[in-house]
Amino acid sequence: MKIEIKKIGNSDGLILPRELMQRLDLKRGQSLHITELAGGGFQALPYDPDFERTMEVADEIMEEYRDTLATLAK
User: Which one of 17, 32, 47, 50 has the fewest CB atoms closer than 10 angstroms to its CB?
Assistant: First the structure.
């Protein structure tokens, strides 16, 4: 499905077609969590505060063990 980025007031936004909103069970005003993907894409998931905290902890661990993880990746 092709979706265009449009100017909305002083910002830019995506307009999601009604049928997509219904299929994904999204509601107006609902928050989404955006994750950048390799290759320049992104993934939008319903916002979950528990997931947000889990990702913060994962970021902290990856930062703390950056050298170890880089060695393991070889």
Answer: 50
